[in-house]
Amino acid sequence: MRRSSQLLTRVFNVIEISGLRKAYRSRRGSVQAVDSVDLTVGEGEVFGVLGRSGAGKSTLLRCVNMLERPDAGTVTVGGVELTGLRGKRLRAARHGIGMIHQHFALLSSRTVAGNVAFALEVTGTPRAERRARVAELLELVGLSDRADAHPAQLSGGQKQRVGIARALAARPRVLLSDEATSALDPETTDSILRLLLDLNRRLGLTILLITHEMTVVKRICTSAAVMRDGRFTESGAITDLLRRPESELARDLFPLEPVTAAAGDTIVDITVSGDEADEPIIADLARRFGLDVRILGGSVETLAATRAGRWRLALPGAPDDNRAALDYLRERGVAA
Ligand SMILES: Nc1ncnc2c1ncn2[C@@H]1O[C@H](COP(=O)(O)OP(=O)(O)OP(=O)(O)O)[C@@H](O)[C@H]1O
Fold first, then answer.
1. Residue spans per domain, the chain
2. Atom 30 of ligand 1 has which residue's CA nearest to it?
3. Residue 55 CB–ligand 1 contact under 6 Å
4. pTM
5. Mean pLDDT by 10 residues, the chain (336 residues)
6. 264-331: which CATH number, 3.40.50.11540, 3.30.70.260, 2.120.10.30, 3.30.360.10?
7. Assigned fold of 12-242
8. CA–CA distance, 83 with 175 (Å, rounded to integer)
9. Measured in angstroms, how far is the CA atom of residue 54 from the centroid of ligand 1?
């Protein structure tokens, strides 16, 4: 009995990538675009890979559905190892993976409904079923009233909604997002991110996205990795990364003022998430240890996964004088 409930509560890893490597070779030399990447994305997670241009994000994403064949390593999606598949079996496995693109990649000669139907034609869905499914998908992305429009008549946000409807046509468990909001203005970006989060929650859709925008990670990701020169420099659940003092992602999400306290103070950074974010931790610290705590900087933010806060505090006196207070913060798991 206990065993079966343990099995039920175990999170299923929808995407598992191990030791992935991909290089591009040309006459001018070789570029190691992806260099020994390991990545696990659990069911229902929204995982963001953040990095600058040239970091290797697109190559990594394109290796997940084998648009690029890795040089080494394995890619398993929904329990199926794609690296071992070719031809018909690979095409069938790809139907379980939807993809959306920065520039939408719509067929300009087809209507909105025709673009979405195209994905169903490819999978051999009968005509009558196609019509019903297209209507359902357009409703899902809020475009029922634009079914007969052509892409040229749509705004960027509407084009991306068509892209999302098309990507979801074959009921994939996984959606890959290749800079899906990079070509959109901030307001439209916001509405597309809200739609993705809504689809993630309503359909249990697992999303792996690549982006160079921290706001995307902040708004919808439950986990993230930072990619540089083909490698992950850090990776994990957002709530865990926030607690790592060396985390670049935590620093970018919650920039803290440089230390300006008078010499002799003890500087401590504290990070809270979930229900803790609403607890009076600083007041508690001041009361419990009789300290005149000063807040040097910090903020509380609502992230996709949780609410979180990070502050830099100055405690009067040297670290030795504040040992009990520092131990207390460490025991509560809010300071390193
Ligand atoms: N088809 C290709 N042939 C040769 N080199 C390539 C090819 N595709 C990518 N590269 C190189 O591989 C490296 C990683 O590129 P990739 O496009 O994966 O990075 P990225 O992080 O997605 O950047 P961007 O956001 O600019 O697309 C870069 O140095 C790039 O120039």
1. 12-242, 264-331
2. 54
3. yes
4. 0.89
5. 47 92 92 97 96 96 96 95 92 93 95 96 91 96 96 97 96 96 94 96 96 93 96 93 84 79 83 84 93 90 84 92 94 85
6. 3.30.70.260
7. Rossmann fold (3.40.50)
8. 18
9. 5
